[in-house]
Amino acid sequence: MKKIKRKVAFLFLLKSPVIIYSQVVVTDSLQIPVQDTLKIQQQQKRISEVEEVVISGTMKPVKRLDSPVPVEVYSQNYFKKNPTPSVFDALQTVNGVRPQLNCNICNTGDIHINGLEGPYTMILIDGMPIVSSLGTVYGLSGIPNLMIERIEIVKGPASSLYGSEAVGGLINVITRKPQNSPLFSVDFMSTSWGEYNLDIGFKNKLGKKTDVLTGINYFNFQNKIDENKDGFTDVTLQDRISVFQKWNFERAEQRAFSFATRYLYEDRWGGDVNWNGSERGGNRIYAESIYTNRAELFGNYQLPLQEKIHFGFSAVHHAQDSRYGTTSYIAKQQIGFGQLLWDKKSGNHDLLAGASLRYTFYDDNTPATANMQAGNQPEKVWLPGFFVQDEIKMFDRHQLLLGFRYDHHNIHGNIFTPRFAYKLPLSETSLFRLNAGTGFRVVNLFTEDHAALTGARDVKIINDLKPEKSYNINLNFVKKFYMDSGSYLGLEATGFYTYFRNRIVPDYTSVPNSIVYDNIHGNAISKGISLNADLDFRSGLKLILGATFMENTITENGITEQQMLTEKVAATWVVSYSIKPWNLNIDYTGNLYGPMRLPLVGDLDPRPPLSPWCSIQNIQFTFTGFRNFELYGGVKNILNWTPAKRIPFLIARTHDPFNENVIFDPTGNAVSTPENPYALTFDPSYIYAPNQGIRAFLGLRFKLN
């Protein structure tokens, strides 16, 4: 009888979390020394990590440590350590990933991975290519945070599976399944600057086989704050609402069928603090006003066949009505995407094959869609493609992945992108991965670079632009330590190298007061090393540390320069401490960026050509002692760091935004005058960090299961 009781108790401990407050854990029938319980905890953590399933690296569910492609996973709980109103802002604490603002007035931006700009990062929602081109700057806003289960990030080549844009990597936002979501949840946060963010989520069951999950996000900021006293808003004013709904259907033999919809409306503006809506598009008071209407549909349907075949689909309608001073930017983009995916295991081979078709309609009424003879001509692009992938399991748990993709662009012709990956397990707690591949990118200039629209620079497109081509290799090493004390240490190091041909780079310097677009006549290289450490101590202290050292250069005509707006050193950290007797969690988060090369208007521009070191740091306290409630608050940007403190001005000539008092020479360049000694024109593109200072925040979460 004693033996049976001990066996039952041991099995119970294996399947249940064990919290230790004293030297001995006591059950009804058995006393277990601390050393044994710690071993049980270690085993549970190891099983949890091994069993964690990811999909982004190989486009199929696979255990994270078994994947030949390294995939980073960040849960919703991770982003709660520094709550933000959008996914764009949330990524500021992910190593090697940087949200980059591209305009001092409209505050639009994109996501950099390992120094590569936003257009080289593919953004997916539930595996579907939702966010691209026009949506690059707005598509990550308004996704209700309560609807997000996790975010998967792949750093490195992924074009062989995902096609154009997946050159530097991809970000896959995985939304919650309705059946695994709370019945009702609310998250409300406000700041001392007057920002208000509200997330609401709830689920319904329609009949016996249909689950529906609904999420609503509302964000509002209407304060004309001008801390740097330049007469322009420091932060864009916004009024945004987003509605998300996901449907899941139970089918015979557990076949999958789900789809989701999202609608976003946003009204944002920035500029002269005296501006109001009646001045929109006028030449008296400068502002940038952007109305965005965006609708999305995406889903997955498993065909009723013996073979495992899925049909994924998405559709996006994006309409943008913008005024950048007197410049109108009335753009429309419609994207339709469909993909058949066949998944088959045969012996040691795990096969994946797919065929996709993407249609893009794009019209922005700018030089990007203009024809000298025919006037404005919307762009219509058909991009069919197919791909195959074979993941081969070899001796001693070695894995080899071979992939190939073929696309046909109706303008640029045939495009081939191969892929290679190898996973070498060194032990049960360490492994080595090698990934190599090529990538391609087809360009929509103005949708990706809003600096071309704002300010007074002339836009010049030198030649017919060719698709960019890249060659990439990544080396990844992972080592995990499980200590007898119950502590855990995880280490990861990744070296990366990317070589570009035909890269398109906006040139801010060779022609003053202009932005020149052309394929570079040379090469571009992105290389570096990324380091991550994850420490989890028995005391309740947890540290997630990361640092990336990189060099992004452009070589043209024998001259090599650092890429614009790209740092050489970046670091992120999350330090968490849990005081369980007090039901209190403390989170200290932050980032650090080294100097970046910045765009100057001309040779006489007095602003520094390189940014200083900058760091945004935050602290948060969360009380969890209430039933169903969490109360949280803290301080953002505790150092009160802003770029405006170290330079004469951020935006050039805010007092003359329409260049009425600027004198130009016959070639179109500004001339130095007593009124304009630095020969400047109005220009808001000199930006590398948020211009939002210290502020307190307070929030409340409620969840009903």
Structure overview:
The chain is mostly beta strands and 705 residues long. The chain has 2 domains: 47 residues, no CATH class; 653 residues, Maltoporin, Chain A. The chain has 6 helices and 38 strands. It has a 22-stranded antiparallel barrel. It has a 5-stranded mixed sheet with strand order 5-10-11-8-9. The radius of gyration is 26 Å and the shape is globular. The chain starts with a helix and ends with a strand.
Shape: globular
Reported by name, the CATH topology of the largest domain is Maltoporin, Chain A
Structural class: mainly beta
Provide the β-strand percentage band: over 45%
Low-pLDDT regions: 1-40
Would you identify the CATH architecture of the largest domain? Beta Barrel
Bin the helical content. Answer: under 10%
Q: How would you state the average pLDDT, rounded?
A: 85
Number of helices: 6
For CATH, the homologous superfamily of the largest domain is named as TonB-dependent receptor, beta-barrel domain
Note the gap between the termini: 39 Å
Index terms:
705 residues; mainly beta; Maltoporin, Chain A; 22-stranded antiparallel beta barrel; five-stranded mixed beta sheet; 38 strands; 50% strand; disordered N terminus
Spell out the blueprint of helices and strands.
Blueprint: H1 2-14, E1 24-26, E2 31-33, H2 34-51, E3 53-54, E4 62-63, E5 72-75, H3 76-79, H4 87-90, E6 97-101, E7 109-113, E8 121-125, E9 128-131, E10 148-155, H5 159-162, E11 169-175, E12 184-191, E13 196-206, E14 210-221, E15 237-249, E16 257-271, E17 287-302, E18 308-324, E19 327-346, E20 349-363, E21 370-371, E22 375-376, E23 379-393, E24 399-409, E25 413-427, E26 430-441, H6 445-448, E27 458-461, E28 468-482, E29 488-501, E30 514-517, E31 522-536, E32 541-556, E33 559-562, E34 569-579, E35 584-593, E36 614-623, E37 629-636, E38 695-704
Parallel strand pairs: 8-11, 27-30
Antiparallel strand pairs: 1-2, 3-4, 5-10, 6-7, 8-9, 10-11, 12-13, 12-38, 13-14, 14-15, 15-16, 16-17, 17-18, 18-19, 19-20, 20-23, 21-22, 23-24, 24-25, 25-26, 26-28, 28-29, 29-31, 31-32, 32-33, 32-34, 34-35, 35-36, 36-37, 37-38
